[in-house]
Amino acid sequence: MPHCLIxxxxxxxxxxxxxxxxxMASSFWNRFFCGLVFLCFGFLGLITSPAEAAIKNYQFDxxxxxxxxxxxxxxxxxxxxxxxxxxxxxxxxxxVVINVTNHAQYNMSIHWHGLKQYRNGWADGPAYITQCPIQxxxxxTYDFNVTGQRGTLWWHAHILWLRATVYGAIVIMPEQGxxxxxxxxxxxxxxxxxxxxxxxxxEFVKKANNLGLAPNTSDAHTIxxxxxxxxxxxxxxxxxxxxxxxxxxxxxxxxxxxNDELFFAIAGHNLTVVEVDxxxxxxxxxxxxxxxxxxxxxxxxxxxxxSGRYFMATRPxxxxxxPIDNKTAxxxxxxxxxxxxxxxxxxxxxxxxxxxxxxSYGKKLKSLNTPNFPANVPLxxxxxxxxxIGFGKEPCPTCLNGTRFVASLNNISFEMPQxxxxxxxxxxxxxxxxxxxxxRPQTPFNYTGAPLTANLGTSTGTRLSKIAFNSTxxxxxxxxxxxxxxxxxxHLHGYNFFVVGTxxxxxxxxxxxxxxNLVDPVERNTVGVPTGGWTAIRFRADNPGVWFMHCHLExxxxxxxxxxxxxxxxxxxxxxxxxxxxxxxxx
Length: 587
Prior knowledge:
Layout: E1 4-9, E2 14-19, H1 27-44, E3 55-69, E4 72-79, E5 88-91, E6 95-102, E7 110-113, E8 139-145, E9 151-157, E10 167-173, E11 187-196, H2 201-211, E12 220-223, E13 240-243, E14 248-255, E15 261-266, E16 271-276, E17 279-286, E18 289-291, E19 296-302, E20 309-317, E21 329-335, H3 355-364, E22 383-395, E23 403-409, E24 412-414, H4 421-426, E25 459-461, E26 465-467, E27 472-479, E28 488-492, E29 497-504, E30 523-524, E31 526-529, E32 533-540, E33 545-551, H5 554-558, E34 562-567
Parallel strand pairs: 3-6, 5-10, 11-14, 13-21, 22-27, 24-25, 26-34
Antiparallel strand pairs: 1-2, 3-4, 6-8, 7-9, 9-10, 11-12, 14-19, 15-18, 15-20, 16-17, 16-19, 20-21, 22-23, 27-32, 28-31, 28-33, 29-30, 29-32, 33-34
């Protein structure tokens, strides 16, 4: 939502004022009020200085609420009764304290997606990786610092499929006095793309798992929780953004969908990409963006067309023979003074299987790489990892066809533990996990050749990879044709990484590294591995703890397409995992 954000503090006071469009519809009064607040706080000497960070306190009540969409009413799990949930507004350098109280019938954990959580995996949130979940009737306080990051991130439930409705934006403003490295926008808005099912998500996922089948695709996509007027009973469930002629707006776009990579465009308007995953990029202009689940993209859009109403629209990209919800969600980009009776025009989105657009769009993403925002790409590699991505089937006597799907890295499907892996690591608990995850597949093969469907030999286990503190890592993620090729967005917790290379077909260790971009590769926390292709990333393992890495398609994560890194403590007193919080949920 468009907003005015003021973080102010002195030794005794932390004040935050958020003016949403619902509260302050008039642009004049919005500017007047925000200016007045800045003026008053300035006289009081309360405006936060870079050396005096604020503490931002939030209360998240996880509760069930009845919601109606697409002519269907159902109960959904929410935070504070809101769908999507509340936006967290902070500044770079702030401390954030979020108390989560679980009033719902499901166990809950929340992940602050993209926040690095240095030494502080206890605040990361994935259930059974860094904590056991918050049980019904219990609370847990996520307490973390926002250090060296600014931009758009997001938060979501990290257990079961609850992030279908439990998600929201995180907006990190730069330190006071630090401007954006692009033209200052007039106003800004969060655009959260999601999915909607008419049925109870947890119930149908449980039923599908018991039968060994893939769950149904969603019934609609959504923009800020609303599918838009192209769906039945949805005219009133349409996100509308009012704009003024000649002004420039910053859109903070988040893909919170569970299983779909999405295109997004606004009819008649170009989008200038300036940031992805809370890292500034070299600006480039495009008619549409492509954004995978877990990713964020900030774009500038100028309201420079004929005054009218224009659809913003989103629909999936999928270039593999996999069923998807191919329906288009819409919102409205509406110029001030234009009546609602004017019919909006639709944007031309790329075709749903437009591989060439996807690959060319990815190549345009480059780090800003300036003195203020350098791209510190590791040039020397201490540890080379090569992980294959595949599907398989395992026996299941109770399933419909006697088997069920599994997904794997290096042909190992990850088995979730019953206690938090970070606790097991910190307290040296035996028998919870092994650190023998292989650096490369045991049996090399023609990864993207003819489909392999029999005798795949997929194993299961809680097997992690141990990484030396401060070592540099290169990881090549290789898609395979084990059952089928498909695109996979991979998210690494606790880190950003540089995407130094990508290609179609099999990775060639003799030739492909020569084509790497080691000057200004895009830096992010979630990257798409192309269908039948590979992606190479590099990072420095300078954050001790246990860090989850998984496909951000919920379907594949549930099938076992995940693993974790154990990054060892460093020698310094400030290079080891922080002590366990007193209120960490019990297992």
